[in-house]
Amino acid sequence: MNRLSLIAVLLVSLLPLHVSGLEANDQRRLQRLDSTIMNPNLPLAQRIRALKQRHADLLVDGKIHRRFCVWDPLGRGGPIYATVHEQTLRSLHYGLVLAVEAYQDEDALLAAFEQRQCDAALVRGNRVYEFSRFAATLEAIGGVPDRRHLQVLMQVLASPKLADKLSHNGYTLLGVAPLGESYFFASQSDLAQLNQLRQGPIAVVPNEPSLQAAAQYLGGQATVIPLAQLVDGFARQQLPAMLAPVAVYPVMSGQLRQPVHIFDVPVAQSTIQMIGHSERFPTGLAQMLREDFLFKFDSYMRRVDQERRAIPPASWKPVAEQVQAQLQRDWHQLRQRLLQQGLYDQEMLALQRKVRCRINPQSWECEANAVAAEQR
């Protein structure tokens, strides 16, 4: 073998090692970038630079362009659309250019999302079961008693440690915003006590499986009615009772013929959730969006408080402590039933219980025996 042939053989034999070394260096570089992006303790500007370097292939003119489809019953003139439109300016800060389209028909929005006409969809939490049962279970009956519990839970969901739980079957949770709690309403003066609602049917809107189950549990029968008909029928006292988010009151207040009763014990949280196609939102970008939703939590709650202030104080009816305590046990049984039926996600229920026990460790459900029984 001559000298040139020997050199060629040596180069060929060393080439795989050299290529492998380059691949290893590239892999370490990507891991460092991912670690930077997912670290909320680092300056945001540093994380944004890492995001752009990590996903340079997604950039067009230095930006990532995405299309958000937003459900708002009032269309482009509604508060939900306005909130997301405001988000477009903040999103520019970390390199995301948003095209936002409003849908008044939630079914049409979801159809467009599944047909990939939208990169992400902002819809009511009870509409995301097919995309993320974990996220939809946020609205489990009695699972999140009040805003303090909800805020702690939102902080947990925005943690990078939970990122793997938030992507499933090609979809990723990009954020959650509160819409207020759901309550039992009565339109007639003879229904002045919560237990009196057991006398007849309770109306709920479509596509609310949790609220429908709670209405059946308490009243024995749930009547599913589209939102416009529910508001009109309740305001005219044709519907004696309903279970609905508190945001319904301002919609119907101008139609009410007489004061209504709202029983002051929350049944469930009502949320709006952003779901995206996973391949359009890499883990780091999804993480930043979730953190941004958490950043605006207080702003969202101020909107909820503004709606609550439209309700006359006399409309709120207190519920006796012993009734509330029994109701919490009833909701515990209902959650377990809906878990067994496949509606709820076990991990989310366990996470909610941890938050409840952190805030109220003296609760009966936080005793060791109760926790063990629920985990079996």
Quick synopsis:
The protein is globular.
State the domain count: 2
* Total of DSSP H or I helical runs spanning 4+ residues: 14
Per DSSP, what share of the residues sits in E-state strands of 2 or more residues? 15-25%
Poorly predicted runs: 8-12
Which CATH architecture of the largest domain is right? 3-Layer(aba) Sandwich
Radius of gyration, whole Å: 25 Å
- Count all strands and give the number: 11
- Cα separation of the termini: 73 Å
Report the CATH superfamily of the largest domain.
Periplasmic binding protein-like II
Percent helix, as a range, is: 40-55%
- Average pLDDT for all residues: 86
- CATH C-level label of the largest domain: Alpha Beta
Q: What would the principal axes of the Cα set say about the shape?
A: globular
CATH topology of the largest domain: D-Maltodextrin-Binding Protein, domain 2
| Pattern of helices and strands | HHEHEHEHHEEEHEHEHEEHHEHHH
Largest sheet: 9 strands, mixed
Q: Which structural class is indicated by helix and strand composition?
A: alpha/beta
Structural topology:
Layout: H1 3-37, H2 44-54, E1 64-71, H3 79-93, E2 96-103, H4 106-114, E3 120-124, H5 133-136, H6 147-157, E4 167-168, E5 171-186, E6 202-204, H7 209-219, E7 222-224, H8 227-235, E8 241-245, H9 248-252, E9 261-263, E10 268-277, H10 283-295, H11 297-308, E11 316-317, H12 321-340, H13 346-359, H14 368-375
Parallel strand pairs: 1-2, 1-3, 6-7, 9-11
Antiparallel strand pairs: 3-10, 4-5, 5-8, 5-9, 5-10
